[in-house]
């Protein structure tokens, strides 16, 4: 059969091409032949690709029916009614399908169809004052929504027309006599000019009613003379409520016959068979939806929601759904109720038609400024987000959706934030890594805590889809901001987001960025946050442990071995503070207990001018020689010597001071050192900016060293301020002046005055002796009993004036110069 259909359509297309005509459609397969006049084809419009039906008439083989075909074409062009001129499939094939449906469902559907035909017929008879003349099953067609459409305008005529074909050619159609009214059978088709235009069509409507309810029954007895009224036994499946009107439609007397308009009025009464039909009520409510009040709209929408599953699929997809989508364009309070129904009915739409039937209207609604419509679109986004494409989201949805981030109503802002995750896979990289993140950064400062919390959750869910550089710049700052939020659940969301995006961080970033930025949550005031923080830290530490297990023990093994550094694997790990202190002490002893090389056993301790240092070692503090000079001992002259101080030790090779230096050499070294210092002082000056380390003009400086009383002198001539008490805790490590090579002259910081306001002149100390120094090894073992005790000075402190301070500084400089000159003269005398 399909082959014959294709062959027929190909033949028609070939004929059209030979005629030179350009038709606005592409002819498809053949459907069926109708009444021996028309052949029905499926076709497709060339401009938009929508499916259409094409009626074809072959003039060469059916020339006798040519006037009827021309009349049908002319009437189709001039007659415009929503219940006419539309067709997709003949009613005959649909009735066979509905025969297996339930009794009530089938009855509702048939009554709805008869209502549609009655409306169209009333329009033709009253408004057009015409007679259809061909009301039968083959003249009814079914649209994609299952709605009945009246066709078969072959004999449609007006009595006032000169070229009316009904009155002369009405009997040319197949089975025309069997379906004609009693007056036609008696007086012919021409008698219709004298009767009401609706009389013949009303009788045919009664026969159509019997045919659709009882398709397997023959015509009623009233169709043949003497046309008796139909008995109740012939009712068949015709409902009781409609059977009285059915008998009136078949009245043999045309003047007393019920017209289509009257039949429609009886059915649409308050208790009529049409008014109580649910399909009729739904269609009536949808047709007048824009003009209905809010209460009427709510009633209709409620009935749709309650009985949505009982409607025929084609009825909901192609009749209810387009009307609801059209109603959505008006917005208003009912939009939130309409949209769920649109998506519910849209489930029956085929995948091929879904973008056009459902998505296209919904996408347009995003441009609506109505908040109710926007809220409904966002709430039900999960139901249609998967069917959207990337181009539609980028160009048609996102430009309008982003306005929700700045809306003054908090619920719109929150719904916008929650909807992003559904369309994020369809957003371009520019929007995802730039525009969207700017809005989310603003949302983290929203006054509503729930919006801040949901924003943090959204960033955590978007983390894996962000670009590499964007992850490193955005995630840690965003989650750290959430951890500082005043809302408890926002802080918890920040911790959970860090845990969820652990794969987004490099292992080094976990240790250097993530853990440091969230560790303060471990002591959060809320237990809920603290517990989550410890779980997060545990997760990060486990990841770090698994990573460092594969790392080498040291980054520079060759250098470590050459320096004799203990391998990290051999180090002792501790679990307490006391244990850590003990291990640190053990490491120090191990480091200091190294054995010197044989060539270094007998060498002197000297300061190296330059020490080769690895690049990783920290630089020396205070200059290249500061750390060396502080450990070099000083002889009796007060100079730094390269000679080691002898100590009692069992290891003779490790004794310090084994090599002694003559006093003359030490004195010569001291002269050179003092000369260099004097030259540096005279040449370069003080590197801190002036010649004096203390500004004599600064009254607020700490001058306590110069504001103490004159120290008392003990019986043996020793300055009491320089004497260490015998019971002092540091007495075991303190030595006297002879041991440290310091003269008996009081230090400048211990200098005092004899009377308030009058500086006491201090005599220059005698030159140091050449003997003494570090030769007396027993000086390290002098008992504390021989050391004098300190007697605290009881003289009151006196404040020096600026002039006195300046005089004291000048005196000290002069003493230094004199001492240097004296040392130089002694050196020349010895030479």
From TrEMBL:
Q: Where is the composition biased (Polar residues)?
A: 707-737
State the Gene Ontology terms under molecular function: ATP binding; protein kinase activity
Any single GO BP term: tRNA export from nucleus
Q: Which GO terms describe its cellular component?
A: cytoplasm
Does this UniProt record's set of keywords contain Kinase? yes
**Where does this protein have compositionally biased stretches of type Pro residues?**
758-769
Return the Basic and acidic residues bias intervals. Answer: 801-831
Q: Does the keyword Transferase apply?
A: yes
Keyword line: Kinase, Transferase
Q: Which InterPro entries match?
A: ARM-like (IPR011989), ARM-type_fold (IPR016024), CIK-Related_Protein (IPR051177), Kinase-like_dom_sf (IPR011009), Prot_kinase_dom (IPR000719)
Q: Which residue ranges are recorded for the region named Disordered? A: 701-831
Protein kinase domain location is: 1-274
By what name is this protein known? Kinase domain-containing protein
Which species is the source of this protein? Favolaschia claudopus
